[in-house]
Amino acid sequence: MKIAIIGFGTVGQGVAELLVAKRAEIERKIGDFRVVAIADLTGSIWGDFKLEDAIEYRRKKGRLPSDRSAKEIAEEEDYDVMIEVTTTRLDESGIEYMKTALKKGASVITSNKSIAVDFQGLMRLAENNNAKLMYEATVGGVMPIIRLLNSYLALCEIIGVRGILNGTCNYILTRMEEEKLPYSQILSEAKEMGIAEANPSADVEGIDAGIKLVILANTIGIPAKFEDIEIVGITKITPQAFTVAMQKGYTIRLIAEASKKSLRVSPRLVPLNSPLAIKGTMNAAMIKTDTAGDIFVAGRGAGKFETATAILSDLYELVRTN
Asked: Fewer CB within 10 Å, N or C, the chain?
């Protein structure tokens, strides 16, 4: 199997590091593989090279050795699978490399939430070219929700999904619950700790959770787009709101909900004994089905190796189901 990696930041390097560290185990599961090309905004490398050398070069130099662009690599190199781990952009440029690969008949494994821009179109493109689009890492990091919906629950009717899809928001709300500190103070500390981005608006305004909800909605058969999601973030939540909620046996969490009746991300009251009252940076989801009842799943929603692990799980699933 020939693999191209497009995107070589934190996640891309994490994938490469796991491919090196776990090569023997991976090859026992999927057979021989070779990374034939890597590209990102800093440059590229292709042909006959050692993956560990590419990792070391990028770490020391801050770039890859060639100026050949990711677009050229995607269009011109010969590969069976593209691992696409570039940054989410909510426009057509965000899915450019994926479309290039799928049109060539190469399967795509991605952590890039840009698939929300044209989920249905990408799936049709994959099917028309006898390829697959695998996207476990786009929602909930290492939380195995996509495969659960697509495989184990494939013959169930999914009535709806409710979940916590943003670890930054959950961390802030957890600390507000436990310490009754103001939102602005906790956000500032979260930035210092690296839990929140320098510009956290996509997280705290609910945009990130909304994008993930689009992906989940499409996965369960609701052809949603981002503009269909009703979104309210957490910026106006106060410690006093937690005091009132907890007196009545509730806490507050940013809940993303997808069903035929509702596509919404908003702060919601959650019973203190509910699995969705999960704390810290964890992600969680409750799936309501017709025949399997309610199923709860949780896991780390972000992180270098967590996301890379989800990507490698898709690589295994791609080989297993072909």
From this structure: C
